[in-house]
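Quick log. Single chain, no ligands specified.
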Amino acid sequence: MSLEHIDARMLSRMFLAGAKNLESKKEWINELNVFPVPDGDTGTNMTMTIMSAAREVSQLGDAVDMQGLCKAISGGSLRGARGNSGVILSQLFRGFTRRINEEEELTIPVLAEAFEKAVETAYKAVMKPKEGTILTVAKGGAVKAKELAEEGCTDMERFLSTVISHSEYVLSQTPEMLPVLKQAGVVDSGGQGLIAVLSGAFDAFLGKELDLSVRPIGGQQAKMSPKESQRQAEAQMEIKFGYCTEFIIMLNKAFNIKMEMDFKSYLESIGDSIVCVADDDVVKVHVHTNDPGLAIQKALKYGALSNLKIDNMRLEHQEKLFKMSGNAEVKAAAQEAVSKPPAIEEPVKAAQEPLKDFGFIAVSMGEGINEIFRSLGVDYIIEGGQTMNPSTADILDAVDKVNAKTVFILPNNKNIILAANQAAELTTEKDLFVIPTKTIPQGITAVINFVPELSVDENEGNMISEIGNVSTGQVTYAVRDTVIDDKEIKKGDFMGIGDDGILAVGTDISQVAGNTVAEMVTEESELISIYYGSDVKGEEAEAFRNQMAQRYPDCDIELQYGGQPIYYYVMSVE
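-> predicted structure:
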């Protein structure tokens, strides 16, 4: 690579370095969130998004080409996208890779166009783009990149350094664009995450010594003592899936993201240790299974197979035990384990029921709230919410499991709506409709107002209309000192957070919860619903309900166990 070009191998290193730098700064970025609630959204979501892509990039190795790299970055981040910040980051990568996909080397003019395409794609993904966010920081970098390219800049190091410096300047100005940032004394957390990615990538470009290893989803195993190693070896003599199966599919048709996910899901049903990397016309597959024939038969639906290799891991493991142990008992136990035929679990074949017309998916957290959704007819619950936003892939997987032609999804969190919309775009075999519920009470109201006899459009319109009549308040605690909406908040204070900001702050949970309800109730209010969390005792919740009944005698007061973490009370007024 010269100072005027970036090839695929260097870009791969830069991407991995950017991902690792973001991962290392995750907690710091979480602390920049405006609301001092214990959820840590932005840093966590951006990290999980980019690491999903980084795992795919790391599997490509050194013999990487630009098309394969672009596919890994775009597809991996798209599937792993979580939360608004993660979805926007995945869209930036998507636009960027679309521009460079056909290039062998990246010049400054090409990079400038790729930055511009990245910003254009990300802005289109957001319904109402807001300035002072990661979008603004990305746009600032793209504008500077275009200026440098038009000036005829040929020094790649100067180009990258200047673009990043200008992006950092734009980030520093985000508090002037969003008053809530200025009052809280922070810059935009998503923008800071993007700077972390760019800075890490630049370090790799400069040739700094960096750890670019990427942990698999299951994490890394700690080093064991020789005694523990032998104990583990003995315990592992009975291997669950005995055949290491590898092959390449020479595709005879387009292999889209949906097909790839379906194939991976099937492999997970018959084995483990799965690696499935799709390129333009080939798919590399690795799986440990007890029946290699099942994997092969499924793969043949997509094309011809080559480089087929099947190894009996039980025999290999026996040989290793012989080498590592002089203990005759261990050798005998190994021989006995290998000589026994593997217990192969036959897959359960149930008759596929015909698809029903409508189905529901709800994102929920807390056993009580989960049960409420199920009792209302929701087909599938995605465990998640404030502390763990589900990814686009999680949502697509849920859609596959709902036996319906048309599926409605209730995100029940404003930070999940973008990922749900992205899943709707990728769904091919079913119709997925996103009802933009931002809170649990809105989701409950939406499903209550579903009428099976009405059309999809009528139901969608009714549900969206009804959730507009629901005001929600949630009581949690502050993790740091800050000032929001002219309210001084101290670490450990209880906060009542409404649909549009902080409604109440104090040191007494019941008082804060009561003040939160008071801010939501109007003369037209008829129903107050209270869902108490896992950290609230039943008698405390009942006492609070009685207080509200006395204060609002004209309203029906409903109290239900939600079991949700983090939020002591989730309350709604209709």
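The domain at 231-324 is CATH 3.30.70 (Alpha-Beta Plaits).
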